[in-house]
């Protein structure tokens, strides 16, 4: 029995001592990924020399679906910077053999053409009973499969989908069917400004929220609309759901919004967060069910109501969704819920329609609209 235990220990030590290249080559489930990475020895060398990392490695089925999609076909163009950006987004800073709570983990994706988040773009990890879900751009959900694999520089988790690099705010709004927000930002000439801010938290009203105050919108001046939209943006703080707590936050508009956490739901003034933690290139978006009014900043939450009353005096519902006439149609399929278990991640029939995890997204969706995010 002693010799058997020693043999098992020796085998375990040998497994841990394997370098990344050897472990990938010896893992049958990752043969598609390994073959493709072999075309880019510099990238493999960079990953192999990294220490204290966690690699989220798409399995053969995930990588095959990806390569057979329009997005995967884009890799045939061999844009090395883009390919490196995609794969470094699959590398977490720190070795995580397991996840015990919801975390927003920084990745090695740090170039400013893909992210304006200090410390690198993140992936959200949500542990479950038998696996961990990893949420990336557009709430794309990849789940771990099997036990983690140890190598000399860290840990590999095999996942069942390719991650999506988060897009900028305006493109995410379009793909998330937050078309009123997208149109309003364009109407106020704020889309580019919001897209290029660093470290933002955006509270984005869903389409139903804009429709509910439709009668008040035609009378707004450009300055009024600008003030309202700026009141939904926090700069300098990326407030993921596990960071939001009771208190106030200064907006770009200059007035504070009040955050209240009630029985796990998050409220911003009187608006409820209905979809939390939509990762974007420069921070995070939380979808809310009411348009905030900087001239009615004292509006408070009423948790007993499913949807808060509009905070624009005398406003009534419109017959169509405002600001959407010139907004492109979303190109991705849609789901309706954010990451399970996240604080304030309640779902609602009036919530935004979020793109589902799919290998059939276009290249712009998968790679986060790199040209749209790029700092000039």
TrEMBL record:
Residues 1-17 form the signal peptide. The keyword Signal applies. Coiled coil: none annotated. SMART domains: FAS1 (SM00554). Pfam families: Fasciclin. GO terms for cellular component: fungal-type vacuole membrane. This is FAS1 domain-containing protein.
């Amino acid at each position: 029995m002693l010799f058997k235990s020693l043999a098992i220990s020796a085998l375990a030590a040998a497994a841990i001592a394997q370098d990344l290249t050897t472990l990938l080559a010896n893992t049958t489930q990752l043969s598609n990924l390994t073959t493709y990475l072999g075309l880019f020895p510099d990238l493999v060398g960079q990953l192999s020399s990294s220490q204290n990392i966690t690699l989220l490695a798409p399995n053969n089925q995930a990588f095959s679906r990806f390569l057979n999609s329009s997005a995967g076909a884009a890799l045939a163009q061999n844009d090395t910077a883009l390919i490196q950006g995609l794969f470094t987004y699959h590398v977490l800073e720190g070795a995580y053999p397991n996840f015990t709570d919801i975390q927003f983990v920084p990745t090695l994706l740090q170039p400013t053409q893909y992210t304006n988040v200090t410390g690198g773009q993140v992936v959200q990890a949500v542990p479950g009973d038998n696996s961990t879900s990893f949420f990336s751009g557009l709430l794309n959900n990849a789940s771990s499969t099997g036990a983690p694999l140890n190598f000399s520089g860290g840990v590999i988790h095999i996942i069942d989908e390719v991650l999506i690099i988060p897009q900028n705010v305006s493109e995410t709004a379009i793909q998330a069917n937050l078309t009123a927000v997208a149109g309003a930002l364009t109407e106020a000439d704020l889309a580019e400004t919001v897209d290029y801010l660093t470290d933002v938290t955006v509270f984005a009203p869903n389409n139903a929220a804009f429709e509910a105050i439709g009668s008040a919108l035609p009378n707004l001046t450009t300055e009024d609309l600008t003030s309202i939209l700026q009141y939904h943006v926090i700069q300098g703080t990326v407030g993921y759901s596990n960071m939001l707590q009771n208190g106030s936050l200064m907006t770009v508009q200059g007035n504070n919004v009040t955050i209240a956490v009630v029985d796990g739901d998050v409220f911003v003034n009187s608006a409820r967060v209905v979809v939390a933690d939509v990762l974007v290139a420069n921070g995070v978006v939380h979808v809310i069910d009411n348009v905030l009014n900087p001239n009615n900043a004292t509006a408070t939450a009423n948790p007993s109501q499913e949807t808060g009353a509009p905070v624009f005096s005398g406003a009534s519902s419109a017959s169509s969704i405002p600001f959407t006439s010139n907004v492109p149609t979303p190109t991705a399929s849609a789901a309706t819920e954010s990451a399970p278990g996240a604080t304030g991640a309640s779902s609602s029939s009036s919530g935004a329609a979020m793109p589902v995890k799919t290998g059939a997204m276009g290249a712009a969706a998968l790679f986060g609209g790199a040209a749209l995010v790029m700092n000039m």
